[in-house]
Amino acid sequence: MSSSASDRSASRRSLIRRAAVTGGAAVAATAVSAVNAAQASADTGDPVSIGQVNEGWCTTITNAAPDGAATLVLQNDAGASLHLKRQEVTRTVTGGVYPTTAGLGVIIDQSGQHRKHEALTTANATMLVPIPPTRVLDTRSPAGRARLLEGGGRIDSQGRATADTFLVVHLRDIVNYGDGMIGNITVAKTEKGGFATVFGRGDLPNASTINWFGPGQLLSNGVITQLGAYETAAGEYYEDVVAIYVQKSAAAVILDVTGLLVFHPESAVINNPKTLSGGDGVRVQVIKENAERGKRAVQAGA
Hints:
By secondary structure, this protein is mainly beta.
């Protein structure tokens, strides 16, 4: 790939080309089943009655049972005990907690103000999955550069990325539809003082991930970053990439991954190396479905 300024700008834009995360499923309750009974029913503000669908936007249940007996026991042998319907909450009550289509539990305090808190579940939260330490980039050797989608043409004779170079690394066969990574970045054979930035989405951040202060240094630093997406000049789409921008001076760059931030552990394919039979493979489809949450769509890789 060309190393011109326009190509580098295109690279930054391509890292944005990723399905947006708009939150998990969210929702207002619409049906309740009691032990050995039909669906419950109540108009807004009324007690729950057994036998009909509950269409009210707010239902209050109080405990009048003796000896601490349960107020409501849910059981449905034919399906979910409690069914939550995707719905935008437009009316609220002081002290209420509401699931919404944004995947947030919205708590209304005594002053009537909205206090938003994420209800972290497998439906709307990422999880950390440790993996064996895996080297995904080492600019000092051709084998170490095998995962480079951009920047391979800007490596000097000492295996250093030259100043003002974008390195784009794919994590295919390590993670599918990941959200982020944890690892370690190392620089070696530094030319002079400089720094590098690791990032996965959006424009180049105005911050450094690792700094060096002179020639011939060997330094490392931990890194936590998002994963992004990338489309090559030939049109091949990569779902999981990370970028490194080397600024000011040449340096050899090594990147190791030790953990993945994912929406489902199946996305960490390196931990479960079953055969992936391409974009239409059964397991790939399962991983894709697991990675999707509510309106969070993911694009199948090339």
